[in-house]
Amino acid sequence: MRKYIIKRLLLSVLILVLVTFLIYGLMRLLPTSYIEAIARQKSQQPGSRSYEEWMELLTVSYGFDKGIVEGYLRWAKEAIRLNFGDSWFYTVPVTEKFHSVIWTSFTMSAISMFFEIIIAIPLGIIAATHQYQRADNIISVIAIAGISLPTFFFASLLKLVFSVKLGWFDLYGMIGRNYEQLSTFGKFLDKAHHMVLPIVTLVVISIGSLMRYTRTNMLEVLNADYIRTARAKGLDEHKVIYHHAFRNTLIPLVTIIGGSLPGLFSGAQITETLYGIQGIGLTSFNAMVAGDIPFSMFYLTFMAVLTLLGNLIADVLYAVVDPRVRIS
Known about the structure:
Layout: H1 2-28, H2 32-43, H3 51-62, H4 68-80, H5 94-129, H6 134-148, H7 151-165, H8 184-194, H9 196-222, H10 225-232, H11 237-259, H12 263-266, H13 269-275, H14 280-289, H15 293-321
Helix pairs in contact: 1-15, 2-3, 5-6, 5-9, 6-9, 7-9, 7-13, 9-11, 11-15, 13-14
């Protein structure tokens, strides 16, 4: 297993180099007039550098003064040192802006994933063990509704009912008007109160696919020969389902959960935008729209690292949930 992990890590580094080179190459394909437009825009800001100074600075930062390979190597050298330069749009170091918004998205996504797992997996098992019965039909309807609902529609519906009609929650933002006058615990409760609707939105739109996936895999396992053998030996039905059947259902679930780990840090762009949550999803979207190349390069590289790490974790967990899986 140790050799396998080392081999996968080395392969992941190679893939990361190729992916970041591709990202850098795509950034280099932007026309030079784009740099001129950015330089002209920044030179018009109060107390800013001149147009010529901005052109020289952005050309060096963009790598136009070097070849694509040499420019990439220079960018990679700085990236290894975690120096991604200053954000053009937010006018602060990229890592500083990232650190200020990432934990908001992580907290919201982690809580959403927690509720998604503890709700979807048990309901999927119940649906599988009560196939074509009332419980299965109700759960299937809920799952299909969750899969079919567009994020913007469901979020708007929640805001209409609970913010506009009932007035229980604010329409936008992470804090209330009297946030600064609250105690430390009061500030925590205020932020938690503002995250209720975004978390509900993320849970509802995500729960359906995991629920259906659990049900499908559970039905396949319940029809296996060894399950019929276990029942024929007189084992308790609860033990048959949750010890024998569910353990083998975990393998495909690990793939889904492991693959969703990057989503903990990538942010929920649509949800954050609709609720005015200043997370990494909304921040990166604004940066890309504004042509903030340093921040965009950092964010895309960060997502590539998370994706490779999520795949590695999923592969390693195979051997944990199923003793039959071993890497030679």
